[in-house]
Amino acid sequence: MLYFFHIIFSLFFKNHHKNHKNNKYYFKIKYNFIGSSLFLLFAFFLLITIITADSIPLLVSFQGGSVSEISESRAAFLKGRVGFFSFLVYVNGFLSAFIIPYMLVILYHEKSKVFLPFVIIFFIYTLLSTEKALFLRVIIPFIGYFSILYKNEKNPYLIKKISKFMIFSIALLLLNTVISGFGQSNNVEIDISIASFFNADFSSEIIDAGPFLFFIWRSFAIPIITAVDSFHAFSLYFNDSYLWGATNGTLSFLLDLNRVWFERMVFEYQWGQADEGTMSANAVFFIEAFVNFSYIGVVIYSFLVAYIYFKIQKNTYYPLMAISPLITYNLFSSGLLGTLFSNGLIFLIIFNKIIIKKINIL
């Protein structure tokens, strides 16, 4: 199968070997073709998603919808899909987690004309869905890219470029947070302590704290809160009996196990479940390792994560190196197996290993 894909892609890719400051060989692909193809695929996905959606979260917000109405619309836009079009959830996860962010960095790095229309349509998608995580998936690898570029090239002009990028990104992120209905400051005094900040019940108060504080709480506190609650839910629902891979779709299929939707059970434990029963909690990657394979799983998962980081950082292709912070962000709020398979990281690894041989990752 991989050999077949290698032959297909070899029709559209060509090696250009030349001396490079950081690489013995600088591998340059025909990025315009693959970037354009991915752009068209994503545009088609977005069109189908909009056409089949019951409502558009952005429009619900502009129509004066309440926080709960916007939240319900956002959940139904993709995550809450049932029936035939539920496959769009998996397409979104596969494309937007790593594949599209990585391609955007490549297109920018190679100064491709495809970059601008691609990044515009992706930002339109993030605004329509009011999903803050999608913004971060573009912002994080570009922060990594500019940091690597400055570290290696020491160009003072990059400081100005990085500053503009950060201001623009933060502004868009806060705008998205406000549009989503969360973090709208209502001039309400909030008593914030460490204990309350790292408590799921704080969600009813943090809504009135303003977009910046809400974003910090949602991005950094929630995965920690969920990690603790995951242990409680694991003890409550399974009496601390390990699940041996049943929480992952791929492993449960291969091992012929009944699928356990553990993330949904944790969400229900924290806040109750939506009518569709599809809302999932976000916890750091070692939770998945522990509930499935005990402490041994935590050690093995941690070794695999360290190995992936090590091999990526040994590489000298800037766009690939820039993905490391995005992997960190993903693993802070989801499991390793889901990151590899559902989110497409394993495809990115294969892409770099087999198709782009000069950009070795494994």
**Residues in helix, %:** 55-70%
Quickly count the domains.
Answer: 1
Strand content: under 5%
Note poorly predicted spans. 1-28, 358-362
The major beta sheet can be summarized as: none
The averaged pLDDT comes out at: 79
Span from first to last CA?
A: 19 Å
Strand tally: 0
Radius of gyration: 21 Å
Number of helices: 18
Compressed to H and E, one letter per element, the order equals HHHHHHHHHHHHHHHHHH
Rough outline = globular
Content-based structural category: mainly alpha
List descriptors.
disordered N terminus, about 350 residues, globular, mainly alpha, 18 helices
Structure description:
The protein has 362 residues and is mainly alpha-helical. The chain has one domain (2-355). It is 67% helix and 0% strand. Helix 2 (31-52) runs parallel beside helix 6 and helix 14 (285-314) packs antiparallel against helix 16. The longest helix is centred in the last third of the chain and has 30 residues, at 285-314.
